[in-house]
Amino acid sequence: MQNAKGSREAISPSSYPADLARNEPTSELLSELVAHLRQNRTLLREGWVTSITEARLLTAMTQEEIFAEATSVYDSYVAALETGTFEALQAYARNLSERIIPRGVETHEVVGIVLLLRDVLARSLFAKYQADFEKLNRILDAYEPAANRIANTVAVGFVQERERVIRQQQEAIRELSTPVLQVRERLLILPIIGVIDPQRARQLTEQLLRGIRTNRAKVVVIDITGVAAMDASVANHLVQTVEASRLLGATVIVTGLSPEIAQTLVTIGVDLGKMNTVGDLQGGIEQAERLLGYKVVPSN
Amino acid sequence: MEVPILKQGQFLIATIQAALSDADLVQLRTALVRQVVRFRSLGVIVDVTAMDVVDSFASRTLLEISRMIRLRGADTVIVGIQPEVAFAMVQLGLTLEDIPTALDLEEGLAYLQQKFTTTD
User: Which of B81, B95, B111 comes nearest A248 by C-beta?
Assistant: First the structure.
């Protein structure tokens, strides 16, 4: 932070005419600016909220919520301008993102409101210093880089939080989506639901092979009733999974191929000759029990 | 490195204990094919638990072992293929087509025992 500020002070004298640079250093201008923003807090904040509403941003939130958040954002904004440190603002941005992401607030809205605040404040500075053009210039020199950095910080914070949420959800889905279940001694079932992409197919195989080893399974029933579509690469992967399972000494029974998948597989010419397929999960489990020597009889 | 071949009842067990060179594999093949009749064994188990890589030569040699032993009147079971190795093998198209496989030595013995008790 110190470095960034220092370099800004070092650059400004050379980039502006000498008579402008001899005046107050940036930090003094910034504290004058902060004082102005504190004084007109109520007015500016209301102006900001109005422009948010007019721009139809944050429609997922109520007017009161917007006002409450706007107040906190405004205060953190001014604090960041005053101290030149962005950690607090960053933490607040992350916290705010955590709360509003589940409500469906989009990236453009968050960036939009921060830019609106920047504009509202810039306008108020124009209004206040319009008589003294030189001073206005210097104030804007101090204000703009800081404001841009704030906008950047908030936007990056939001996007990072969003990415974190997405990663977390992907992880959760991945774990949920591939259970390897033991239904009997030495018999596993692997129900697959949803879309299989190459990455998931790979993960399925890994989990299944590991499951075969840890449960010492001899027969595995892979149920794909819940799979709507399958392309050639996934079908080949399925065949490979069956073969790899056999190398570990387990027999695989595939159940629940839908008519669409059956048609696709035959049309694209995937060789399923090595696969043991049964119509539905019940039939698959029954066949597996026969292979394992179980006999299920009603008790009466 | 020579692979030890142990006689266990009616079966022979060859446990590979480290990565093998091609020459070692050929040596294993020769030894097994020779000994299977000498000990009048009904089955042979090749335990590959310690193999981290099964390449095309190793895979082909295992197939050859199985077929040669069949001609000498016995059955072969490959046991202990690691999950990662199994997946890598099928991706290379090495599926050891007709050879019976089992999870580990215990399973392999159980397989052979069951096979020879039911046929007797």
Answer: B81
- Check A249 against B102: CB less than 8 A apart: yes
A214 reaches B (C-beta below 8 A):
no
pLDDT tens track for A218-276: 999 999 988 888 888 888 888 889 999 999 999 999 998 888 888 888 888 877 777 88
Residue range(s) defining the domain that contains residue A217 = 181-292
Are A37 and A81 in contact by the 8 Å Cβ rule? The answer is: yes
Which of A154, A174, A194 is the last residue in one of the domains?
Answer: A174
End of a domain among A174, A195, A217?
A174
Is the whole-model pTM more than 0.90?
no
Q: Does A205 touch chain B (CB under 8 A)?
A: yes
Residue of B nearest to A215 (CA): B103
On whether both A203 and A85 belong to a single domain, the answer is no
Whether residues A209 and B102 touch (CB distance < 8 A) is answered with no
Q: Record the tokens describing residue B118, joined without a space.
A: 């039911």
User: What is d(CA A189, CA A283) in angstroms, rounded to the nearest whole number?
Assistant: 13
Chain A environment of B83 (Cβ under 8 Å): 206, 209-210, 212-213, 244, 248
Number of domains comprising chain A: 2
Angle at A177 between CA A176 and CA A183, to 5 degrees: 90
Q: How far apart are CA A74 and CA A124, in angstroms?
A: 14
Supply the CATH number for residue B112's domain.
3.30.750.24
Q: Does B103 touch chain A (CB under 8 A)?
A: yes
Give the domain extent around B53: 5-119
Which tokens sit at A211? 């499951």
